[in-house]
Every structure is written in structure tokens, then in C-alpha cells.
Amino acid sequence: MKVGVVVDNELNNDKRVLREVEILKEGGYEIFILCFGFNSKTYSTITGIDITRINIRKKLKNILFFILNSLPVYEWLWSSWIKKFIILNNIEALHVHDLYMARAARNGIKKTGKTIPMILDLHENYPFAVTTYNWTKGLLRNMISRPDKWQKKEKDYLGYSDKFIVLSEEFRDDLISRYPYFSETSFCALPNVPDLLQMNSFRVNREIIPFKKGAPIIFYFGVIAERRGIFDALSAFNEIIENGHKVTFLLIGPVDKKDERRFYNILESAKTGLIIHLPWIDISELPSYLDISDICIAPFHKNPQHESGVANKIFDYMLGHKPVIASDCRPQQKLIEKHNCGIIYRNRKELVEAIITLVDNEDLRIELGNNGFNAIVNYYNTEKVKKKLITFYHDLESQKIK
Q1: What is the separation, in whole angstroms, between the first and last Cα of the chain?
Q2: Which of 147, 271, 293, 328 has the fewest C-beta atoms lying within 10 Å of its C-beta?
């Protein structure tokens, strides 16, 4: 079967899409991709995949997306591009990424006069997530982007699709509870688990570490933003330091523009070496930083977005043999408690206690870290979950034949 994959980014850095594409290709499907190419940039090819790129200036794309709820030019363009894409490649099933692309994809299918199934891949709880993005903040920006409108549009946009792929069973169950006319068999829960073959190809190299390790290291990897709970973690960290515990806080990742001043003010006021920030590393270097770390943290604020699935970083932490301290967002709480690979906290007091517990108990750190690693090897990796996606597609194919 010829599967058309539609994604409104430049593809090459989208780990989830690339992982799914490789799984489907391995399952015997012929894959065609429609995506963007920004600013006439040259992209590397992907073996065995036919890629059609829409060349556009990234700034123009951002503007069109920004005004989508006020003037849906973005959808009009995409429905036209998708129509041509389907006809040109004789697509037999359309796999579309992200909620906001659903109507454009359905209209594109209709314009071809064909009847082909559409799978909608939900990377996040978009109606909630969009309200937290900085580009929707401020009176004028909010008036134009109208992020709150997605709460009302979600029902209709889900209705454009035949099948769904989501990050977790919890997210699936939440959607079914709100829209009970969708059956459980319409969903495939596919978490962002690591590819063991890729991660095992990355070697630990302590020579790349730009600082010397002294005290135990608490490690956070990812975007640095208030919504990710970073300032809660920093506050807890300061209390621990004031109480005489020797520990270092290592943060790796870009800082959300809205939070830059607040974050860098904290860095400037911190004692040298206690808080270390690196704005970026190559993913191949992650095992080296996990190797020197002692405790990993995922302090996300508990909200509908962070309860849509388990973040990539938690699986990465577990693969690195590290104990995880995480907030009580349902999917990550369920994972960590099931495999006894970390500590869940509900408030700042419990966060402080969790950090102190693990800082003071090396044996417990080792035990929890090993439990997490074993869970990844036995349950949460691409080899283990890929059967779910292939079976999902096989079922779709058999229904199509009938």
C-alpha cells in the first residue's frame, strides 16, 4: 500500500515522524512524504523514501500559521498541495501529523474524488498546548492567533479523520471519554520510545564535558521554560544548597524566549559551578552527559498537555541507568511507579525531599536506575512498540479491502 505522510515542517529533525516512517517502510509499505523545505535549503535524502518538499520562506510559513484561526489561507494552500500529492503518487492512505492539519487533509482528499483512509497523528494535546506558546501571548497576538478557539474546534477536526495515533493510552482514554463515539480500536497508542540501535551507537566520551565533576549532579535535558517546571526545580535546588547539601544542577537545552531574563538572572546570582547551563548538545553526546549525572529530573507542570504522554527525556534518562524525579503527570507517574525507577512528587516540599533522598543514598540511585534501564530494554523501545503500528496499518488495510 502506498502511504502518504504529511507534516508541516522540514522533516529531517522530526524524530517521531522519521521513526514511524522507518517502521512503516520496514513493514513493507511504500512511503511518500509531503513536507516543507525552508528558504531553499538543501536537505539530505532518506534512503527508500520519496520526499516532495514545498519550498517556502520560513517567516512566511510562520505568518500564515499564526493567522490560521483568523484567515485560513494556510489550510487552503495545504488542501491544494495535498490534492496534487495524492494524485501524483496514487496515494492509498494518508497519514497526517498534528490536529491543525486535519481539515486541510480531508479537503485535499475530497478534491481528488478518491475515497482513501486518513490517519491523524496527534503529537500533543494541541488545544491546550497552543495556549502556552509564547507566540500566542499578549493582547494583539492573542486576538489574531485566537488559541482558545482550538478547544471548540477539536471535536470537528478529530471528526475529519478515520483513525488516530496518540502518545499514550491515557491520552486515548481522555479523548474517548470526551468523544465516546470514537472506539478504542480507532486508536494506536505509540509512545516516543528510544531506538536502542541508534542510542547504542553513541559512545560515552567524558573528554567532551566542558567542566569537572565535583558534587552529585542533577540533570535536566530539554527546553528550559516555566511551563516545564524549571523554576520550581531551581527554587527547590536553592533550598537544598542553603541546607548544606553539596550538589550541582546541570541544565542542557534552549531557553524559552519569554523566560530568558528570569533564567539568566538566576544563573548570574548562583555560586560558580552550582548551576551549569549548556544551550545545546548534539544528541550523540547525550550518553556522555547522562554518564556523569546522578539524578535526572522531569519537573513538568501538571496540565492536559503534559498528561498527553511520556516525554522523550524520561525514556532517555531511564536508558542512561539514572533514577528519575518527576511530577505527578499521569503517564509518567504510571510508568515510574510501575517499574520502580524513580520518585514522584506532588508539591515543592516533596520535590525537595525526593532530591535529598537520592543525593544521600547512592545505593537507591543505582537500584532505581537499573530498574529503569531494564524497563527500556524489555518494554519501551522501538523494537517492542513497532509491532503496534504495523498491526494498526494491517487492520486498516483489511478494512479497506472489505
Answers
A1: 15
A2: 271
